[in-house]
Amino acid sequence: MSMDFIEALQEIERDKGIAKDVLLEAIEAALISSYKRNFNTAQNVRVDINRHTGVIKVYARKTVVEEVLDPRLEITVEASREINAHYQIDDVAEIEVTPRDFGRIAAQTAKQVVTQRIREAERGLIYNAFIDKEEDIVNGIVQRQDVRNLFVDLGKVEAVLPLTELMPTDKFKHGDRVKSYITKVENTTKGPQIILSRTHPGLLKRLFELEVPEIYDGVVEIRSVAREAGFRSKIAVHSRNSEVDPVGSCVGQKGLRVQTIVSELKGEKIDIVRWSENVDEYVANALSPSKVLEVIVFEQEKMARVIVPDYQLSLAIGIKGQNARLAAKLTGWKIDIKSETQAEQEYGRPKSLTAVMHQDSVSID
């Protein structure tokens, strides 16, 4: 080792943020293992690297005793005092045993340790950068695909997008740009692993935050999201300012804001509904685009019975029950939908002539 080595460590400290002393301590620990392995010794040793000159020395550490039973680990008082006159019984004497060709081994070991520490530091920086982006949107470029995953280049790291987390309408090939939602960031032995999704409801929420300034500024809140990726989603919004229309803010002038999101989601239909603390009103809004005549709330069962016009029954339920299912996810309430005729037959309720619930929602196809 030499002054050049110390200067190189100082440069690594400046560029990579790894303290020089930390590197030197790691090199010293690695050199102890190298010494024992290469020189077939069981001695307790200490390796010292001079912090100013880079000179390396190896010291055997032996306990001072009256009678030596194991010469590899012990030394007599008389022999120890030839090294240092102040040694006493039970002291640990250090004897320099630096091999003549230890410099070559030291150089190789130091290179391996520094390379490993730099790699670990870079992995740590990447992990710290992306752990803050968990539950956020990132843009990447598709690199390759295997039977289970797409691998997406995020710049400093390659992320994993499982094929099960793609929307049915997603078709990506090498070099395509993809916008995804980070669901998990893990620090593994192979480095940071970042898991992405295109189906997570959080992707829809983050897209609205990006496109709608009122949401980004906190004036409009997203209270709930329900999503069946690639097909249909519902999002419930609320305004903290009575003068700001939450639904209109999300739709944008001529529907431009929501259409940008629909395009990103490859044509996924989006229903934007007004959140309400009144369960009956909220449930009615959630069933958009169906009209609702009446909502009867059963608090104990957390269930709402909804009555809709006969001609609106299929619309309220949706294809394969999708509209009703999403409304239930959005509100957190079980929803039982009945037509006027069914309600009259089953519960003896007269047909309603007009809707008693006010709906405030927009459905974007």
Mean pLDDT: 87
Distance between the termini: 70 Å
**Poorly predicted spans:** 350-359
CATH architecture name of the largest domain: 2-Layer Sandwich
Counting structural domains, the number is 3
Q: Secondary-structure element sequence?
A: HHEEEHEHEEEEEHHEEHHEHEEHHEHE
- Side by side, the strands of the main sheet go 7-6-5-8-9
| CATH level 3 topology of the largest domain | GMP Synthetase, Chain A, domain 3
Strand content: 25-35%
Going by helix content, strand content and strand pairing, the class is: alpha+beta
Main sheet: strands, sense, barrel: 5 strands, antiparallel
Helix content: 25-40%
Strand runs, count: 16
Describe the protein.
The chain has 365 residues and is α+β, with helices and mostly antiparallel strands. The protein has 3 domains: 3-130, 2-Layer Sandwich (N Utilization Substance Protein A, Chain:P, domain 4); 133-198, Beta Barrel (OB fold (Dihydrolipoamide Acetyltransferase, E2P)); 202-364, GMP Synthetase, Chain A, domain 3 (2-Layer Sandwich), CATH 3.30.300.20. 36% of the residues lie in helices and 29% in strands. It is built from 12 helices and 16 strands. The protein has helices at 3-16, 20-39, 77-81, 102-131, 201-211, 213-216, 246-251, 256-264, 279-286, 313-317, 322-331, 340-347; strands at 45-49, 56-65, 74-76, 92-96, 137-145, 149-153, 158-162, 177-188, 191-197, 220-228, 232-239, 269-274, 294-298, 303-308, 334-339, 361-364. Strands 7-6-5-8-9 form a 5-stranded antiparallel β-sheet. Strands 1, 2, 3 and 4 form a 4-stranded mixed β-sheet that branches. It has a 4-stranded mixed β-sheet with strand order 10-11-12-16, with helices on both faces. The chain is elongated and about 110 Å long. The N and C termini lie far apart (70 Å).
